[in-house]
Amino acid sequence: MCDSLTKKLPRDQIVRHQRTNCPKDKIVCQYGCQNKFSVNQAHQHNEENVPKHLDFMRERIKSLLEETEQKQHDRYDRHMGNLKRRLSSLQRDVDNLESQTQEVNTRVDSLTSKKKDQEATASESFRKDLEALKLREGVMESKSGTFEGIIAVLNREIEKCASLLEEYDRQMRLDREALTNSERKCKSFERALALRDVSMAEQNLRIQALETASYDGVMVWKIADFSKKRHDAITGRLTSFYSPAFYTDPHGYKMCCRIYLNGDGMGKGSHISLFFVVMRGYYDALLAWPFKQKVTLMILDQSNREHVVEAFRPDPASSSFKKPTSDMNIASGCPLFLSLERLGASNTAYVKDNAMFVKVVVDCTNI
């Protein structure tokens, strides 16, 4: 019996099932979260918490680096402290040895001088002193040999410390390389997140376009934040832009509008230019071409209902109305649709609450 699945399994399968992760077993996040979830939810959890996991990884790497560096420094400090104490002790012994040697040399000089002056009367005393001096000299040579051994040991300790320092430097290089690799992985995760955000934004735009699309040949297009878009058109930052797509019916022609808020061609700087665009649609192979339906373009007066209206029938010979071979055909319409003077007149309200409304009506009869 598996406790998580509450399901009976054959005896020959229960051992294999227990050795692998049961899909309903609760596990803890491997990156350091305190969350618990089933094995089946692990992939979803990891995708949704990438930024948090990156923070955990940075903190863990930083903590490990600081701990390693502190241990290396402590070990180095201990070795250097021991070395300094032993060197200090050796220096004191060497100083004592030099002092004693100087004293012996002084006494040798003194005795030699006395030997010359008092050789006849003090030969026996001088001989004893000389023997004692030789004895002390032998002792000093023995001590000197001992100190040479100590110096050799200290030299080996110094070489050992140098080796430890080289090992410490090598470990630090490895740690820096590990940190660089971790930072590279973090940047890779961040790029993946950025790409996912771009993909989500594109999906949202597609969903918004589907939500606002009409399928009866009539489109009412609200141009919000009009003053900013008009300023962008005047400065040349964005001279024109397109409306959302609309359709004559769910399986019909796909169309949109293009507007120049500071005019285009002969209307540049004096008029708003408005154009109709035939777009490539999913069902174009089933439709009649060229496009022949009557098109009515309007900019709506939001107060007095003095709408600006222009209507036309497509020219069958124009490439603007042939079957599209790219995303959209060349726009066709009115470069002198609405004068900027009339736009700003006090008795009209083509712009109200910083918004303009454009309406397009396509005759859907005989399709």
UniProtKB/TrEMBL annotation:
The keyword Ribonucleoprotein does not apply. Residues 97-111 have a biased composition (Polar residues). Residues 216-362 form the MATH domain. It comes from Lingula anatina (Brachiopod). GO terms for cellular component: cytoplasmic side of plasma membrane. InterPro entries: MATH/TRAF_dom (IPR002083), TNF_rcpt-assoc_TRAF_met (IPR012227), TRAF-like (IPR008974), TRAF1-6_MATH_dom (IPR049342), TRAF_BIRC3-bd (IPR032070). This is TNF receptor-associated factor 2-like. Residues 91-123 are annotated as: Disordered.
